[in-house]
Amino acid sequence: MAACASLTFYRFDGFLPRLWALTMMARARMPMSKIPGLTFWKLCGSGTGEGFTPSPNMGVYAILCCWEDEDIARQQLSSHGLFARYQKNAREHWQILMRPISVRGQWDGQAPFVLSDIPSQKDAPLAALTRASLRPSIAWKFWRRVPNISKRIGADPSVIFKIGIGELPLMRQITFSIWPDAQSMARFARQGHHAEAIKAVRLEHWFAEELYARFQITEEHGSWNGTSPVIPCRSPMK
Fold first, then answer.
1. If you average pLDDT over residues 229-237, what whole number do you get?
2. Percent of the chain with pLDDT over 70
3. CA distances from 120 to 113, 156, 184, 218, 235 (A)
């Protein structure tokens, strides 16, 4: 079986569930480090709106995982007590299983995503993940450009799903989006405010560390805003 990644989003309503989710950003670290077959993981918060703001959203959190193979991922995501507690406390959750198909850069000095040797399906949606560790001296430049990029991606009729999440407020940011095909993804990346931001990143050295990855979505489970944003195939996970 091929190595894979999972990304699970959780939505929490009410004071106590949100307080629980906030405390789990620290309390979940020890149990996460002991999950068999889990090779890399990150606990993430999000920003208000669709996540592309510096203001925290106390109701939305995400867990990114890299797994030795898909069977282990399915088993742990469906049966491990930590994920069960998250689902119990959340009003809604959406879980995606993905195979990495291209990766460039590092994350905390590591290369967490192992490329799949399984041929990609031409009709399967693609996901794009960008992770950047901002240099403190230029963080204000990054956040000044984000609203324009967010507005443009929101207006793009091709984007299926989009959200901004992060490991550390303001400084370690992750953008995640899903597209129907590689052409739509590339077209957005090369035009308008996004293209201008990419040029500025290179010329002004905004990032201390960066990683760009693309994935083929293979399974999904749960819902977001009451529905499945994308249904490449129904997951057997319960």
1. 54
2. 74
3. 16, 24, 17, 10, 18
Q: Considering only 8-17, 192-201, 226-235, which range has the smallest mean pLDDT? A: 192-201
Rounded CA gap, 131 and 228, in Å?
A: 24
Helix axes 182-189, 192-204, angle to 10 degrees: 60
Retrieve residue 4's tokens: 């894979």
- CA distances to 20, 83, 165 from 45, in Å: 13, 16, 6
Segment 139-161, tens digit of pLDDT: 666 666 655 555 555 556 678 89
The pTM for the full model equals: 0.86
> Residues 154, 149, 214, 226: is their CA dihedral positive or negative?
negative
Q: What angle do CA 142, 63, 188 make, to 5 degrees?
A: 40
CA dihedral of 61, 224, 192, 186, whole degrees rounded to 10 = 100
How are the residues of the chain apportioned to helix, strand and coil, as percentages rounded to the nearest 5?
Answer: 35, 40, 30
Which residue's entry shows tokens 């805003």?
Answer: 225
CA 96 to mean position of chain CA atoms: 10
**Please, what are the domains in the chain?**
4-222 (3.30.70.100)
The amino acid sitting at 118 is: I
Q: What is the pLDDT of residues 75-90, one digit of tens each?
A: 999 999 999 999 999 9
